[in-house]
Amino acid sequence: MFSLHSKMRGYSYFVALCVIVLVNCDEIEDKCNFLDSKLQPNTFRLLSKSIIPTMAGSVKGDAGKIGVIGGSIEYTGAPYFSAITSMKVGADLAYVITTESAATVIKNYSPDLIVYPYLNTKYASKIRSLIPKMDVIVIGPGLGREPETVHLITDIIQDCKNLGKPLVIDADGLYVVSKNTSVIKNYPCPGVVLTPNLREANRLMDAVSKNDSNWYSYWGDCVAVLVKGEKDHFNTNMTVYSWIATGGGSGRRVGGQGDILSGALATFYHWALKTELCKNESQAQLAQSVAAYAAAKITRLCNYKASLEYGQSTLASDMITKIHLALQSAFT
Ligand SMILES: *[C@@H]1O[C@H](CO)[C@@H](O)[C@H](O)[C@H]1NC(C)=O
Ligand SMILES: *[C@@H]1O[C@H](CO)[C@@H](O)[C@H](O)[C@H]1NC(C)=O
Ligand SMILES: *[C@@H]1O[C@H](CO)[C@@H](O)[C@H](O)[C@H]1NC(C)=O
Ligand SMILES: *[C@@H]1O[C@H](CO)[C@@H](O)[C@H](O)[C@H]1NC(C)=O
Question: Whose CA is nearest to atom 8 of ligand 2?
Fold first, then answer.
């Protein structure tokens, strides 16, 4: 079990502390109080804190093995930002599956990533054999929209669906979904989180031919949508788990920020799925909601902290150097 032991130990210390110092002990129960039908920001803060694994006594891989499928001859930064963020947030390993043209470039950015140059139809069976060892997979950063890529990614998503592999789909991965909306229809839990910006969200909404506020429930119970923007809106079939995040951030909308969010989300998603969040709740949907909240929060904080230092010159790479500070201020 996922650090159950240390959690129980933590819990008994906490209770002891409550008794001795009379701090507000309602917190620990309140995090699963869904009675007021809409979750409160404080509930999310407590739940997202509760998914962070302890580092003691774990073996390599316990904190997550994240896959990123993306990159192309034009785009090498996007899959790098996503993968390195998943590790900086706390995953143990990050695998990038990318094109031959992008692989060497990405390896040169970082010795921390494992990079496979297999993103080509001729290596479909190699990709298929890599998928099972990844806990959560991000599909889309820097993919491009070549018809051959769209076709290959459709097949990869289908394989992930057969395996019930949790996915985060972003950027050109969302283009693939908008070209064939059935590919994630009825995706099984633990499901998929789509992370469109407003433009991508509109394209998806058109693709499912719905323009009511329920368009995001088209794909079934286990596909949630985080619409990124000045405010981040998390939409899920289970409306009590929906939320809007504001605060943090800055006016700066720099390229690569979405990739940072997708990488952070993958790690948090894995952790949330491994944690027993709340007994009577829908575990997968609540995990998606809590993970997306943590990822949105961290991305906004990184943006804010980097912009304090670099102002208008803030780049995605600067945001990545602030991840540890964002984690500290959000979760300790
Ligand atoms: C759309 O996706 C479904 C499910 O993966 C697949 O069976 C179908 O062939 C795809 N359609 C097109 C036009 O690619
Ligand atoms: C969207 O809504 C408008 C009216 O609000 C309607 O005329 C249109 O047909 C709708 N489009 C779709 C795809 O449902
Ligand atoms: C979620 O959406 C599906 C498909 O639209 C629907 O059948 C199901 O009842 C919904 N579940 C909830 C909890 O709203
Ligand atoms: C959880 O569900 C069970 C069975 O439906 C019920 O008996 C119990 O009171 C519920 N617990 C909470 C905390 O809601």
Answer: 211
Report DSSP state, residue 186.
T
The model's pLDDT over 284-316, given as tens digits with 9 standing for 90+, comes to 999 999 999 999 999 999 999 999 999 999 999
**pTM to 2 decimal places:** 0.87
- What's the gap in Å between 137 CA and the centre of ligand 3? 25
Name the burial class of residue 122, with classes exposed (0-12), middle (13-18) and buried (19+) by CB atoms within 10 angstroms of its CB. Answer: exposed
Name the closest ligand to CA 32.
Answer: 4
Report the alpha-carbon distance of residue 276 to residue 287 in Å, rounded.
9
> Helices 198-207 and 172-179 sit at what angle, rounded to 10 degrees?
10
Contact 112, 140 (CB under 8 A): no
Nearest CA to ligand 4 atom 12: 280
Q: How confident is the model at residue 39 (pLDDT cuts 50, 70, 90)?
A: low
Q: What are 129-152's pLDDT values in tens digits?
A: 999 999 999 999 999 999 999 999
Q: Is residue 183 lining ligand 1, measured as CB closer than 6 Å? A: yes
Which strands sit side by side in the sheet containing 136-139, from one edge to the other?
114-116, 93-97, 65-69, 136-139, 167-169, 192-194, 223-227, 232-235, 243-245
Matching residue, tokens 């309602």: 26
Give the tokens for residue 177: 């979904």
**Domains plus CATH for the chain?**
60-331 (3.40.1190.20)
